[in-house]
Amino acid sequence: MAGKPASKAAPAIPQLGWSKVRPARVVLVSGTEDFLAERAIRMLRDILKTEDPSIEISDLEADGYGPGELITLASPSLFGEPRMIRVTGVEKCTDAFIIETLAYLQAPADDTYLVLRHAGGVRGKKLLDAIRSGLGGGIEIVCAELKKEAEKLDFAAAEFSLAGRRITSGALRALASAFSDDLAELAAACQQLLADASEEITEATVEKYYSGRVETNAFRVADIAIAGRHGESLILLRHAIMSGADPVPIVAAFASKLRTMAKISGAHGGSGQLAQQFGLAPWQVDRARRDLQGWNDAGLGRCIELLAETDAAIKGAGRDPVFALERMIGVISVISARGEA
Hints:
Blueprint: E1 15-17, E2 26-30, H1 34-51, E3 56-61, H2 69-74, E4 83-88, H3 95-106, E5 112-118, H4 125-132, E6 139-142, H5 149-162, H6 169-178, H7 183-196, H8 203-215, H9 218-226, H10 230-242, H11 247-264, H12 271-278, H13 282-291, H14 297-317, H15 321-338
Parallel strand pairs: 1-6, 2-5, 2-6, 3-4, 4-5
Helix pairs in contact: 3-4, 5-6, 5-7, 6-8, 9-10, 9-11, 9-15, 10-15, 11-13, 11-14, 12-13, 14-15
C-alpha cells in the first residue's frame, strides 16, 4: 500500500505579521508586499534605536554581495555598539551570500540583528529553509500582498485606530476603494487625513480631500448603477474613462458587488454568521443586503449574464469597450430601479 506523501514541515520559528515585528538575532522579512516589508523594517529600526541610540546600522545588497562582507559588518566594533544589518535582494542573492550567511547562522554575532528581505521566488531556498528550521534562532515577518478588499479595509482601519482617531465605516470604505490599487498610496492618504482633518473623519471629509479619486472610482460607479441612478452612474463612468481609467477594473468592481449580492440573496442568518459562511466581512453582508433592496432573482441573474458578456466585449470580443460598459450600466440601473428582469 502506497504511503501518503510527506507533508511540508511547518516552520520552527515564529511567523508574525508586519505590525508584530520585534527584535531577534535573525529577522527574515518575506513576502511580495514591499510597502509592508519596508514599514516592518523601519519599525524594527525605530525599536532598536529606542533601546540603544548608539546602534550602528549597515546595508547590504545580496544580489551584488562579495565574499567577506557580512562577517566584516558583524564583527565587534571598537566601542561595542549593537549593530543592525539590513540586507535587500535576498531573492536574487549571490552564491557567496548563501554560503556565508549559512555559516553565520551557526553562531550569530552578539548584539547584532541581521534583517533579510526576501521578496519571493525559489532563489535562496536553502537559506530560507535553514532559517525556518530554527538555525540562528530567528523569526519570520510575513508581508503577503493584501489582495482582498476586506484586508485593505482592515489595514486602513488600523492606521486610524493606532492614531486614536475615529473614522466612519462609509468613509473608510470610500478611502480604501479609492486607493485599492496601491497600498502605499492608501497609507499616504490615511496619514494625510490624520494630519489635516481635525474632527471625526466622515465620507464628506474623504470627498473633500480626494473627490476626484473617489468619484471616478470603479466601485463608486458600480454603487450608483446598482442603486438605480442611471444618469449619475453614466456621468461618473465617462469621468473615469476620461481620467484614464481602464474598463477591466470597472467591470471587476461590478462583478465583485454582484457576486456578493448573489451569495447573500435568499441567505438567512446574522451578518457575522453569513460573513463566516461566505468568506466575507460583516460589513460586506450588510452592504449586499442594502444593495439587494428592490432586486429579484431574475434581475440579478440577467445582470450576471450581462456582466460576462461585457467582460468578453472589453477584452476583445466587441468593437467598443466604452459602449459595452454604458450598455451594461444602463441595464443594471433599469433593473435596479424597476425591480424586474
